[in-house]
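Here's what a typical entry looks like (Cd(2+)-exporting ATPase):
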Amino acid sequence: ADASKAEIVGVADKWATYIVVAAFSSAILTWLVTGEIIRAVTILVVFCPCALVLATPTAIVAAIGNVSKHGILVKEGDALERLSQVSKITFDKTGTLTYGKPKVEEVVSVMNNLSNEELYEMIASCELYSEHPLGRAI
């Protein structure tokens, strides 16, 4: 579960409070008018805001689980709501947007007497048994 509540959860809790007050008032009024406790209990069951209170956090947890399956880490449920207001994203760390599999794009020799192919062969032979991710990419 997340540490901070999403705004929608607070809204649901606030409405649930009003609904509970209305439910108790209606149940008491029904019992006083009809004298039948079963009708008052029926009012309480029908008015119960449990679905509203439970469904909202459940939906947020399900959304966090869904995005995590796609490799996205969401620390707080509130972040999902704030994400709808984002218009620009800036990434500041190296490796933030990678596949985790380095790939050699180009080999360039700075020595005039060595061709790129010869340089690539030399580097590849040095990295042949390397376990480092960058060595494996070569």
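The chain has two domains: 7-83, 95-138.

More examples are in the samples folder.
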